[in-house]
Write a structure and sequence with these properties.
heterodimer, A: 172 residues, B: alpha/beta, 6-stranded mixed sheet, 11 helices, 24 strands, globular
Chain lengths: 172, 565
């Protein structure tokens, strides 16, 4: 577990995957639906992020906290083209899996169905598909944890605490 | 161009970092008209700290630097200081290129305040063991000063800068003028007790650091407030909670009306007056127009940062000094040193789980050097100090998806205690570790490029191995688990403690500076930054630069009064 996390961290800090995804090569253009709507990728990305950390009546999820914008920005500015291209391909793959399984776009299936597809990606053994989901999930968590809401309401963030106590009971 | 009269001062200080700021303060307080030259842009306290008040969610990339900027800066972007919150302090690779004859990570701060805005704020005094080291162990040359010469100046700078710490009574790490120390964590206290019960030669203490934990009138007069534990020091502190030139010495000097601060002024060379046999001023290149202007003064203090100080001295040629001013010995640029931070260790502790820390700790604890202090006892020379810190973070389970994942993220359990330690080892000065001017390559301002040629030696390798062995034993013996020691093999320079090249000594044949930091061969030029260091010891060097600078500046004032300069 620790080793896996360490490798994950390493992969993230070195900019993600280093090799071309095998399935991207194996897949031809006709097996993937053509992207007519340039917003399709973005809509699917939002749906994936929303499925990872959903909204609930009591607590905002990743989408309403603006995480998709953060994920897009990091992918565009901080990661290599290989990584962001793999995410794009992964989003189209998620859509095509939904169409085969449910005869509907990824956008039109239920959140439970979306999550089932993503978990299947995570547990599968296709490295590129796993890496697509790993990158999006990791960035979603980072963006969510980094949001003002989560930082201030749940993670004890204070810019200037004005103190440091080295030894206090956990329950205090 | 300004008139000749406007270009005449009593003193010129080259550089506005930690040591230059101190020179400016001491001279201006004594009524001397002082010109402070800074090669980079101006940075005003408070208003020019653009990221100081940003929250984590205010950074568009969550703290990461975009790839395109990193690719433009392959050298500096590898350094830990290069984040979205602090990269504006770093010098872009293209601005001041240099030649890495052997790998060297040169971390610079070209702006008013220099690296006093970027430093780690650790301020440990040297002891007699450090000043006696080279003579006792037969390396470098004997220091021309002893602890007694500098002790009152440590006190002088500590009172003004504001140093927090405990009086620990440790001979190899003398006590100073301290403000209250930060607290130690439960775990540091546990490790402290464990070490005390098992070793007679080692202690874990709270580090001494340049944070105002209890502002005294002298700090209030500087406009500085109590440290508020923001831990955002590297962005610049609007409160002046830690010491920097910008918050402390420079505004103090400015208030006297005696300081002229000139940013964007790259010193080309020191002008030598062949008839009078002394320096008469400096040539300055405008950073943007490359126009050259001369400034004149009775005394020149060179505080450009160790390597740039070497560069300026080497570039200051005349018929008297064809190889650089004050370089009769031919040693200028040689015996470069730095600190050995290669040894790293991390560990976990799974007891004391009913306790935690709260708030933020801008400091860490410290193990003073324990190897070879009283006598030579290992197969390597000298020794290392250790920085040590840690705490309990949140550790969310991120394996799931959906509401379960969300709940885990919002209610993360506290992790075990995680600690890390790092060595700070003395690097032995060796002649072949040197800097020199490149014969032909110039930087964009027409200055010769600096060639840096330094490498690790067997003594450092052995010291890293000893650190890994000793700290593993100390942590394991204290009940830590998952103890993992490693050698980072980081480049020299990654420590940002480069020193030497113009070492102090008694003999002009084997050193560049005398005991008052004057060039042996040109007494009105003083060097009081890292370039003056005869040996490096293990302590973070800034406090010693401050003390050496204040001492030399006050000597220069006396000599000026006596008309000896």
């Amino acid at each position: 577990m620790k080793r896996r996390q360490a490798i994950k961290q390493l992969a993230i800090t070195t900019g993600g995957i280093l090799t071309l995804p095998a399935w991207a090569r194996a897949w031809s253009a006709q097996t993937l639906p053509a992207v007519e709507n340039p917003l399709l990728d973005r809509n699917i990305l939002n749906a994936v992020i929303g499925a990872i950390i959903p909204e609930s009546p009591e607590l905002p999820g990743a989408v309403s906290l603006g995480v998709p914008g953060f994920v897009e920005r990091i992918l565009a500015d901080c990661y290599t083209k290989e990584v962001s291209d793999n995410v794009k391909t992964g989003l189209r793959f998620a859509d095509s899996v939904a169409r085969r399984k449910h005869q509907k776009s990824f956008l039109d299936i239920s959140q439970q169905e979306q999550q089932a597809i993503l978990v299947q990606f995570e547990k599968g053994d296709d490295y590129a598909v796993k890496d697509f989901y790993r990158v999006v999930k990791q960035l979603t968590i980072q963006g969510y944890n980094n949001s003002e809401f989560v930082q201030t309401k749940f993670l004890e963030y204070e810019m200037a605490p004005g103190f440091y106590h080295g030894c206090v009971p956990v329950n205090q | 161009m300004s008139s000749l009269k406007k270009r005449k001062y009593d003193v010129i200080v080259i550089g506005s970092g930690i040591s230059g700021g101190w020179a400016a303060k001491e001279f201006c307080e004594k009524g001397l008209k002082t010109l402070v030259l800074e090669r980079g842009r101006d940075v005003k306290h408070v208003t020019d700290y653009p990221t100081a008040m940003k929250n984590p969610w205010d950074f568009p990339h969550g703290g990461q630097v975009p790839l395109a900027i990193k690719e433009q800066n392959p050298v500096i972007s590898k350094h830990y200081l290069y984040t979205e919150a602090s990269k504006h302090w770093a010098v872009p690779d293209a601005v001041h290129p240099f030649v890495e004859e052997k790998p060297f990570t040169w971390v610079r701060g070209y702006h008013v305040g220099g690296r006093s805005l970027m430093w780690a704020r650790q301020t440990q005094r040297w002891s007699e063991f450090d000043f006696e080291g080279p003579a006792r162990d037969g390396f470098s040359v004997d220091w021309p000063i002893r602890y007694a010469d500098i002790a009152p100046w440590y006190s002088h700078v500590e009172r003004f800068a504001g140093i927090s710490g405990n009086k620990d009574g440790i001979p190899q790490l003398p006590d100073g003028e301290f403000l209250p120390a930060f607290e130690m964590s439960c775990l540091e206290q546990h490790f402290q007790k464990s070490i005390a019960s098992r070793y007679t030669d080692r202690q874990l203490i709270q580090g001494r650091c340049a944070h105002v934990t209890d502002p005294q009138p002298v700090h209030q007069e500087q406009g500085r407030a109590q440290c508020q534990n923001r831990n955002l020091c590297v962005r610049g502190c609007p409160l002046g909670g830690y010491f920097s030139s910008n918050a402390s010495t420079l505004p103090w000097a400015a208030k006297t009306g005696n300081m002229t601060l000139r940013p964007d002024s790259i010193v080309h060379s020191i002008i030598y007056d062949e008839k009078k046999g002394q320096a008469k001023g400096v040539r300055v290149v405008d950073a943007y127009t490359n126009e050259m202007v001369e400034y004149y003064a009775k005394v020149v203090f060179v505080n450009a940062g160790a390597f740039n100080t070497n560069l300026i001295l080497l570039n200051s040629t005349s018929s008297r000094f064809p190889n650089g001013i004050g370089n009769d010995s031919g040693l200028l640029g040689k015996y470069i040193i730095w600190h050995n931070y290669r040894g790293r260790i991390s560990a976990k502790y799974d007891q004391l789980l009913d306790m935690r820390t709260k708030g933020k700790n801008p400091n860490h604890s410290y193990i003073p050097r324990f190897r070879n202090v009283h006598r030579q006892e290992t197969d390597f020379l000298r020794g290392y100090a250790v920085g040590f810190g840690g705490g309990r973070g949140f550790d969310a389970d991120t394996s799931g998806i959906g509401e379960a994942l969300k709940n885990n993220l919002l209610h993360p359990p506290l992790d075990e205690w995680n600690v890390s330690g790092w060595m700070m080892g003395e690097v032995i000065p060796r002649e072949n570790n040197h800097v020199r001017l490149h014969e032909s390559l110039k930087d964009p301002n027409g200055m010769p490029q600096l060639v840096i040629s330094t490498e690790w030696s067997e003594n450092e390798d052995k010291m890293v191995a000893d650190f890994m062995e000793q700290l593993t034993e100390m942590l394991t013996g204290a009940g830590f688990k998952d103890v993992q020691a490693r050698d980072s093999h980081a480049n020299p320079g990654n420590d940002i403690h480069e020193m030497g090249g113009a070492r102090m000594g008694n003999d002009p044949k084997t050193s560049v500076l005398n005991k008052w930091n004057q060039l042996h061969a040109c007494k009105n030029v003083f060097v009081t930054d890292g370039a003056c260091m005869t040996s490096g010891s293990t302590q973070n060097p800034s406090l010693t630069y401050m003390a050496i600078t204040a001492r030399a500046a006050n000597y220069a004032v006396e000599e000026l009064k006596k008309r000896n300069l």
